[in-house]
Amino acid sequence: MDVRRIGSLLLGLALAFSLFAQAQAQTQKVQVAGYRFPPFVMMENGGHTGLTLEVIEALNDIQTQYEFEFFLTSSKRRYLDHKKGFYDLILFEDRRWEWRDRPVSGTRVIARDEEVFVAHSRQAHGEDFFQDLEERQMVGMLGFHYQFANHVTDTGFLDTKFDMLLSSSLKRNLKLIRLDRPSLAEVAVVPRSFLNLYLSRHPDARQHLTVSDRVDQVYQLRALVRDSSPIPVESLDRLLGQLEKSDRLTALRRKYHLPPMDKDTDARSQ
Question: pTM of this prediction?
Answer without folding.
Answer: 0.82
